[in-house]
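Lab manual, section 2.4: Encoding a predicted structure.

Procedure: take the sequence of the chain (399 residues), apply the prediction step described in section 2.3, and record the output as structure tokens. A sample record is shown.
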Amino acid sequence: MVSSGLRRALKGTCAPTAVVDLDAFDENLDALAQRARGLPIRLATKSLRVPAAIDRALAHPAYSGVLAFSVPEALSLHARGVRDIVIGYPSLDRPALTRMVAEAGARSNITVMIDSVDHLDIIDDVRRSLAEAGAASVRVCIDVDSSFRPAESWLGDRVHIGARRSPIRDGRAAVALARQVAARPGFDLVGMMFYEGQIAGTADAGRTARQAIVRLMQRASIAELAERRAAVIAAVREVADLEFVNGGGTGSFESSSVEGTLTELAAGSGLFSPGLFDGYTHFRHRPAAYFVTPVVRRPGPGWVTVFKGGFIASGVPGPDRLPTIAWPPGLEYSGLEGPGEVQTPLTGPGTDSLRIGDLVWFRHAKAGELAEHFNDFQIVSQGRIRDAWTTYRGEGLVL
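Recorded output:
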């Protein structure tokens, strides 16, 4: 439910617009810190995509360093003064890699993700093309697949639950790549990353048979990953003196923080608490990011139509990728249209109180993707608009 203070603050505002409830955002900063149980949190910036929100999170003592999406984003953050940047995904962007390697400050503060020798070859080509880079080293991190494969010794990867990311899965493969890094001049292996999406990014609430199976799968995956992750880390530490081992996600802090293998956790989405996070049993953060859009038509009894609204989240298409209708209560989508590019019809008893120009409040299903639709967020605290925070889109930054 959207508070009356938030609704009053946006009354009369030009819409559609995006909104951050700053009080909820700050509460979520503290909640994630408590759930981390003393481990530092590396901020996943792609889950915010708002520089001022990133700055506010990094000012909190529980947050240290960022997990960026791409080399251009990492360079932009570095130019803003952010340090200790890990790029969460391998990059083939040679122009951006060239800029990073050529700048000594960026090169020493940005860590590049790899999971194959091919990635090393690309970075090596960039290094050799830059005489000014000299003998300076590029910091790299190995991404290790953390998905769950039941009965892997029998079935291989035919049953794969979780994100398909890295081909590196066990200690043997990780050590082989670590030795390749050690054998090449100009590279320093400084970290490892593990992302357990089948735990951190999969909702488990509900009484259906499917959700019961999800909970069983997650318990089994937590146990399997703890054992495998410990073995992989121990093996790689024989080859390299690692600065950090990163893992977790907003949805897996409870298991990741107590496992004993990680030196830091990663999170960002929990600060905005998008619609997908309504489906977890072990935590509940306050919704902090919304978009509002006005009623522009009343096409008939029991119906209103709002402007735009078709901000569909990435992932497997389904009802859980649609924006959540946050206020007023008693509204639902039309089964024949759904959220649309230019208009979104809504029905239900909640339409009775709505008039032309009234605002309907929505939450995006995912966190950072909301910022791809707006140039800024209206920042509300204590029932008043206090500021406007520019998004990456508003700054012209393309991830």
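Check your result against the sample. DSSP finds 14 helices and 17 strands in the chain.
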